[in-house]
Write a structure and sequence with these properties.
Helix content: 25-40%
Shape: globular
Strand content: 15-25%
Distance between the termini: 46 Å
Number of helices: 15
Length: about 500
Amino acid sequence: MNSGILSRRSFLKSICAGSLALTGCGRHLAGIGEAKKSPNVLFFALDDLCDWVGPLGYGQAVTPNMDRLAKSGVTFLNAHTAGIFCAPSRSAIFTGRHASTTGCYTTQVYHYSHPEIQPLQVTFQKGGYQTFGAGKLFHHPAGFVDLRGWDEFFVRSQEQKENGWGLNSWSVDSPILPQPYPNSIYNFDREPANKFFLEWGKVLNENEEKMADTIRTEWACDVLRKKHDKPFFAAVGLYAPHFPNYCPEKYFDLYDRDKIQPPPYKADDLDDLPPAVRKAKIARSAIHRRLEKLGAVKDAIHGYLACVSYADAMLGRLMKAIEEGPNSNNTIIVLWSDHGYHHGEKMDWGKHTLWQRTSGVPFIWAGPGVKRGAKVDSTVSLIDMYPTFIDMCRLPAVKGLDGTSLAPILSYPPAAKDRNVLLPGMKPGAYAIINRNWRYIHYEDETEELYNLRQDPNEWYNLAGKRGYEKIKARLRAAAPTTFAEPGPDRREINLVVEGETFHWEAKK
C-alpha cells in the first residue's frame, strides 16, 4: 500500500476501537456499535456522466441530491474511469482488473474470455450478502450481463430474458418518445437519423414513471425499503445521461437555454497532436462544426444537463428509500459513472479518448466507515472499488486485483496521497498515466502526449515533443504495465446462443 495511507490493519483496528466518526446516508448517524455488522451497499452507476455535477464544482448543473450525498460523505475530486467507453470500463470494474490484464479493451465479454475471474457480485455473495442488480451495470447489448452471483437481476420484460438480457432502454417505437422523432435539430434533415446520437427532447412529465430508468430505480427502491436477514449489495445502473437525452420536460425547465455556457474551445486545439490522433479528431470535429452551424451547441448541452438532473432525481428516490426504511444507519452509498463525455472539448462529442473529458468522473461515497463532508483531491481510479469493498464489507480476499483499497482514505481523508493511475486505451500499448500534476498519454504507435494539468487544465498544449520533459515522461512511463494482454475475441468474433432465459457465447465456426 502507498506510504502515507493507513495500513489495512490500522484501519480495521480503528473501527473496532470506535475511534472513527461514521455517517449514515442522510438522516441518521451510525454509531460504532451499529457498524460492527457488515454494511449494506447501494452501488449506483450512471452512464456518460462527466464531472459536470455540483459536488465537483460545476455551477451550471442542478444536482441537489448529489450535493446532499456529498455533504454526507467523501467526494473524490480527481477520480478517473478504468476504461474509455462502456464495455471496457464496466469489465474492469466488475473484474477488478484493467484491460491490460484481461485483454478486454473494447467489446470483449469478460465472462466469456475469462470465466475463471470472480466478478464483484460473486464475491459479495460468497461474503454472505444478498445480491440485487438492475439496469445498466454491464454493457447494454444482449449477452453482456454477467448472470452469475445475483440473487435477483431485474429486467423489465420476459422478452428481454429470452433474448439474452439486453437492456433496451430506448427503442424507436417507444410510445413515450418525444414527437416528432427524431426530435433534435441535429437530426432533422439527416437520413437516417443516426438512431439516438445527439438526440435530445422533452418527454411528457406524465410519462416519467414509464421510463426504463425510472422503473429500474423504483424496483431498487423496493429492495432498499425492506428489512433483510442478511446484508445486501444492491446495484442499479441508469442509462442517463447517455444519448438520447430524453427526459421529462420539468428537468429541461430547470435550465435557461440561453444562459448555458459551453466549455471553452480552442480553434487550433488539434494541431499539436500525434498524426494518427489528429487525423481521427479532425474527422470527428465535423460533428462540432455542424452543431455550431446550426446554432445548437447550447441545445445539445441543455439536453445533457436536463438528463443529469433527471438522474439526480432518481438518486433522490433511492436515498429517500434508504432513509425512510430499516437500513438507514448501515448502508454505504457509492455513486460513480462509467466514464466522462466530451461536449466539444478538443473538437469532440463522445468518449473513447485518453483525455480528461473521458477519464474524469464523479465518485462519491457515504455511509458507515466514511468521513462526513470531506473532499479528496488525490488521484484515484474506479478500479479501486473492488478492493475497497473487500475491506469495508469484510469480504473474502481475491487475488490479482489491480486497484488499491480506498477504505483508509474514506475513514480518514488526510491519509490520502497522490499516486499515478492507469487508464488503458483501446489497444495494447495505448494508455494514459494520470496524477494530480500530469497526464501522460502513450499510443500503440509509440507517439505521445504530455499535459501539465496545473498550468493547462484544458489540455491544450501538448508538451511531449518539447525539450526538458524527458525525465517526467520517463517517470510516468515507468508507472505503466510492462506487458499488455492480447485482446480477447470481441463481440463480432463470437456468437450469442440463447437458451430459454439464459445464454452463452461460443466461438464462430
